[in-house]
Specification:
94 residues; 79% helix
Length: 94
């Protein structure tokens, strides 16, 4: 594998790049950004390609509010379960 800077086809590839750049200049800004993000993703090492979707999935759990809501819901259901058992046993004694 030869790096592009050492390649004999460097000028041909650079001409293709210039042609693509001129095509991007006449496109919609959002579309050009999407194309550049895809290109940037393709240039990432394999490890970062694998970790990027994981970071996007776990990003909502980085806020404190989500954790507070999550623990509150868990605590509510645990408390409801304990109260249900307690009331059931209390009623059974009568």
């Amino acid at each position: 594998m030869v790096f592009l800077k050492d390649s004999s086809r460097k000028e041909v590839i650079q001409a293709q790049y210039e042609q693509l750049w001129s095509e991007l200049l006449i496109r919609d800004e959002e579309k050009a950004e999407r194309i550049l993000k895809k290109l940037e993703y393709e240039l990432l090492p394999t490890r970062q390609k694998i970790l990027r979707p994981l970071k996007e999935i776990l990003s909502p759990f980085k806020t404190r509010l989500i954790w507070i809501i999550l623990f509150s819901v868990i605590a509510f259901f645990l408390l409801a379960y304990v109260l249900f058992i307690y009331v059931s046993l209390w009623i059974e004694d009568y």
